[in-house]
Amino acid sequence: MNGVSNNSLFVFVDESGNLDFSVSGTKFYVLAAVATTDPIRSATLLQKLKYSHLERGDDVEIFHASEDRQYIRNDVIDAIKSMQDMIMAHYIFAQKNKTNPSIQNAPAFYAKLGAALMKFIISYKSSDYLKVIIIFDKCLRGKEQNPFLKK
Predict the structure, then answer these.
(1) pTM as predicted
(2) Measuring CA to CA, how many Å separate 30 from each of 52, 53, 54, 99?
(3) What is the per-residue pLDDT across 8-33, written as a single tens digit (0 to 9) for each?
(4) Radius of gyration over alpha carbons of the chain, in Å?
(5) Virtual torsion, Cα 80, 7, 117, 1, nearest 10 deg
(6) Which residue from 61, 41, 42 is spatially nearest to 51, judged by alpha carbons?
(7) Can you tell me whether residue 82 is helix, strand or coil?
């Protein structure tokens, strides 16, 4: 990965699934992270793709994988494939109904998965960088963030 300064590793974390452990909740929960030393370059490629679709008249107001048409999602996947030299992707997933009941609540569950994912990324790459900057999606709010942040 070629970066702006190569002194920092930026890690962007997002999830798929929900933190509802009832039978109406999703079966799986995925926590994924994309790491890069050059977030501006990779973000610029995706912004160019978005504006290209807007110029063609495509409705990409949301520009989100679960909301967009298949051909737009295909273009996003192709753009991500073209970034192989600038990003690394890591993920962890859980089958929620097999989760220990003691962590079948949003803060504990997210903390468990998030800590495992971050431990792997940090032990794998942190010695190469002065800083590891982790940016989380807004899955947990307010007081729910504290147990995760402590981990």
Answers:
(1) 0.81
(2) 30, 28, 30, 13
(3) 889 999 889 998 999 999 999 999 99
(4) 17
(5) 30
(6) 61
(7) coil
